[in-house]
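Deliverable D5.2: sample structural annotation.
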Amino acid sequence: MVRVLLMDDEAMIRAGVRSILANDPAIEVVAEAGDGREGMELARAYRPDVALVDIRMPLMDGLEAAVELRRALPETGVAILTTFGEEEYVVRALSAGADGFLLKTGDPRELLMGVRAVAEGGAFLSPRVARQVLDGLEHDRSAGRLRASEQVGDLTEREREVLALLGAGLSNGEIGRRLFLVEGTVKGHVSAILKRLRVRNRVEAAVLAHEAGLIPKTRVETE
């Protein structure tokens, strides 16, 4: 069972999200908070698998909450849930250590896929956000690819294989099945990759994988 903490200051939004998540019998909303500070208290009490966090909340906004969740509860996946799709918010959310970025205006199926992906240790960007990130990379494609290729060049062949699948949005379990590895071994590879590439989370590693050309661009658009 995937245990979810929902943090949003609008009761109607919380009700809508809770209703969508209820369509998956493997997902349970264990607690709800109307502001970031209350959300952090509930997170420490319930230790959820995934925290769905709105960006704009009173007392402590979603970006601050994401940073605090990363520090206090590293095992809890963080997915930002917002109506704002501008690049500024995407970049800030990823920099805060979020594992996913979901738009409230997106397809309800994206919400379910995103929660499951983050719970399994993966990363998830809604298609609109993924396209936005990749469009941003196009502006400095040559320089970015050169830097990324140099960084990826320090990885072992197996680590590059894991990074490519991570960048395609696969969870640790899915990567393990694809490469015939146990999940614990995949986790070890992912930890080593993040350290070698000097990135903070799986989303940054996934972006780097795309910059390095490890995965076809069309793969991201269809995930």
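Annotation notes: The chain has a mean pLDDT of 83. Residues 126 and 220 are 10 Å apart (CA to CA).
The annotation will be released with the project's public dataset once the embargo ends.
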